[in-house]
Design brief:
4-stranded antiparallel beta sheet, alpha+beta, 25% helix, 11 helices, 31 strands, Potassium Channel Kv1.1, Chain A, 38% strand, single chain
Length: 474
């Protein structure tokens, strides 16, 4: 093919795309689902839904009609899909879930599938997996199966009573998530092997009630004042310091449990330590931190697929070591503002903006750790000055916009609890003396079982990973 013909073909494609786009701008479409008529903008539907993208690129006669019928769907399911596409987070009951899954599968609405995944809990997980299997919504099917595997002790009897054998076999074939922890360690380059033996990442073998070594840190890696998080079953270490003068470590690392290997990844444009790091939807968010002892407000996002960092909207004010969490695919950070004020901000990715969600004011107390579980944010804070080691907790409901205080405190004589990670409908908390699992039930955390503490002093990062059996047997 000549260059001229290639250019002509390319020009023809561009013209077709331009005609395709221009035909959608400001155009309206009536979508008939059952007896219900929905009048929507064509561009909105095409940008949000693979079904309509394919329809309007196909050239079929339906693409030129002002009204189309979606046979076999329920109006309620389509209404839920529209709400999610507009950025809402609707709560769904049993019938809603079935119709939403049917709609997500038929129309290939990725954001609705993600919303359904975020709603999986102990009450609806069996319905989720069975319906997802029926309609072939595989991402939801896998997510529900993993949730059930992680809660299998509680759900096994109901699973074997309610689900067909092929679904049970798939659930039981999955590897459950394991509680993993790493302490603060500086780099260990050259011949300096002092403390090298303790530079390990460990996991809790719940059956044996003992901590076992998963892997050693790379010699160049530092977890001291670093950003550490797990994303898509990989562990990431960003930044950190070494030496008495807090020299920034410019090497960043990724640990892949699949092949038990470490690799280097690019460093952020702005070197930083004492940062907050959170992973959501294939991206790492490096939030705030310090550089040359100056606290920063800058934020960078690392796209795992493209392996590139990009700057995002700055925090409302500089922050180092800020409490940060994710839930429902949303990112939240705690910022302090004297006196005695903890503000919670959410990062809105589609707008690249930080929005103030709520404010918590408690006497002589600030939020030091935050964990998200479904539509609740749990903020752990120090006690007042006369009893600083007490760990108190407040709950903020994203759906109701209300604060409540959890009864009791969450510490013991060995120190306060400022790390927690979710597994199913449980939360694992940790300090040197014990690992404690709680069952989370709205406004209460009910202690379930106590296991061995993590024998490390200083800061500890915790997360969940699915470990291949070969790693746990080595």
């Amino acid at each position: 093919m000549s260059a001229d013909s290639s250019e002509a073909e390319s020009s023809g494609c561009d013209s077709a795309d331009e005609r395709y786009a221009s035909g959608l701008v400001s155009a309206k479409l009536t979508v008939v689902v059952g007896d219900t008529h929905f009048l929507e903008e064509k561009m909105f539907l095409v940008q949000s839904c693979e079904y309509f993208q394919a329809l309007y690129r196909s050239g079929m006669k339906e693409s030129r009609q002002e009204k189309i019928h979606l046979n076999g769907l329920h109006a309620r399911g389509f209404l839920i899909a529209l709400a999610v596409l507009r950025g809402e987070k609707p709560a769904l009951d049993g019938d809603d879930i079935v119709e939403a899954i049917e709609c997500a599968a038929f129309l290939q609405v990725a954001s609705l599938t993600k919303h359904l995944i975020n709603l999986i809990d102990s009450d609806n997980c069996l319905l989720m997996i069975h319906t997802a299997a029926t309609f072939g919504l595989m991402d939801l099917y896998h997510a529900a199966a993993l949730f059930i595997q992680n809660m299998y002790t509680d759900l096994e009897a109901e699973v074997k009573k309610s689900l067909p054998s092929e679904l049970i076999s798939y659930i039981e074939s999955l590897t459950p998530s394991v509680f993993v922890a790493v302490g603060a360690h500086v780099t260990c380059g050259g011949a300096d092997t002092v403390h090298a033996a303790s530079r390990t990442i460990c996991y809790l073998d719940e059956a044996c009630n003992s901590w076992k070594v998963l892997t050693d840190l790379p010699l160049e890696a530092s977890t001291s004042m670093a950003g550490v998080t797990a994303l898509d079953n990989k562990l990431y270490i960003i930044g950190g310091v070494h030496g008495l003068h807090k020299q920034v470590v410019d090497a960043c690392f990724c640990y892949d449990v699949k092949d038990d290997s470490w690799s280097r990844i690019p460093s952020p444009a702005q070197l930083r330590y004492n940062l907050s790091l959170v992973g959501v939807d294939g991206r790492l968010y490096a939030i705030g931190g310090e550089y040359e002892r100056t606290v920063m407000s800058s934020v960078e996002i690392y796209d795992v697929k493209t392996e590139r960092w990009e700057f995002a909207a700055h925090l409302p004010r500089p922050a180092a070591g800020a409490a940060c969490t994710k839930t429902m695919s949303r990112i939240f950070v705690c910022l302090w503002r004297p006196m005695e004020t903890t503000e919670i901000y959410e990062y809105i990715s589609r707008k690249d903006e930080w929005h103030l969600v709520t404010t918590l004011i408690r006497h002589q107390s600030y939020g030091h750790c935050m964990v998200g579980h479904r539509d609740n944010l749990y903020v752990m804070r120090n006690g007042p000055s006369d009893d600083f080691l007490r760990c108190l907790m407040d709950c903020y409901s994203l759906s109701s916009g209300q604060w409540s205080t959890l009864p009791g405190h969450f510490a013991n004589s060995k120190g306060s609890l400022f790390t927690a990670v979710v597994k199913g409908d449980s939360v694992f908390t940790l300090n040197r003396s014990m690992t404690l699992e709680y069952i989370v039930g709205g406004k209460n955390w009910k202690p379930r079982r106590q296991m061995k503490g993590f024998p490390r002093s200083g800061s500890v990062w915790t997360f969940m990973l699915q470990l291949p059996e070969s790693l746990m047997l080595k």
